[in-house]
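Section handout, structural biology tutorial.
Before the tutorial, make sure you can parse a SMILES string by hand: atoms, branches in parentheses, ring closures as digits. In the record below the ligand is zinc ion, and the chain has 330 residues. In the tutorial you will relate the predicted structure tokens back to the input. Do not try to memorize them.
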Amino acid sequence: MRAALACLAALLATAAACTAEPVAPRTPPATTPPATDRSTPSIASASDPVPTPGPSDAPAPAPRFDEDRAIRTVQELAVGVGPRLATGRRFLAAGALLGPRLVSYGYNPRRQVFAVPGGDSWGVPVHPGRSFNLVATPPDYDPVRPYAILGAHLDTIAVSPGAEDNASGVAVLMELARVLRADSALPIVLVLFGGEEPRGPGDLHHFGSQYYVASMTAQERRHLVAMVSLDRVGVGRTVPLYAIDGGPTDLRDQLERAGEQAGVPTVVGTNTGSDHESFADAGLPAARVGGTSYAAYHSADDVPGVVDRTQLARVGRLLLTWATGRTPGR
Ligand SMILES: [Zn+2]
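Predicted structure of the complex:
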């Protein structure tokens, strides 16, 4: 039976997006503790009966998470495309690169266009304009049935190639899309968000996810079991897991247990520096994976060498365990 789809964030004084410090690192215990009752249903408990695979599903072996393929995606975005300001042509190019790939994985991607203000992108003046979310639904997605969302922001600040922030999260999301297309306990909608990074005035950010949440129907809200934002997931040896400060921790707890099951060390805390905040603010179950501090943050030095393929593999392993209830082979 498939089981669960299942920091105190020290935001920098500038309260920048994507900036967080985990608190106490923890390593997995020898055994997984028993699950406790949760007010938020796990993916498994919210799921309808497990579907029987169709004839066409039977012969193909399940693909495995390939961190080398993920690293290639990081290189394609950070080197091949470059800085991906939410309103820029390179952001468009990034969407054009990944959209057909999502189609090849069996998803139906569409652009959700929204306006962003002008202001300041980490020291660079930017004009108002339009950006988009790339929203990819799997064939079995039905807004009147339980589903989950995996998100990763595709944009960067003006000057950064954004290998870690956030080609790393996009790359893991793309690998999960390839591996999970027929294997998650529930349909998973994938969203590559635009306009996550601050562009002012002030510290305004998370425009794409705020627009996405505002556009959700009552049915879509009611049946959303979990939203997980992958943001900066390729640095460090432990995987940060965040709820928002003062919010429910059920989903973060699910992810923590998946880490224990998968043998992936995690650190837990609270953080509002990514797109999960937009969902949590609307009362929807949301968490962030990733956010370890690194020296090249929001700079031109955020290049693929910053990203550790082994850490991408840890994050992939944790999320596959969470999404399928099974620990993938090493
Ligand atoms: Zn980020």
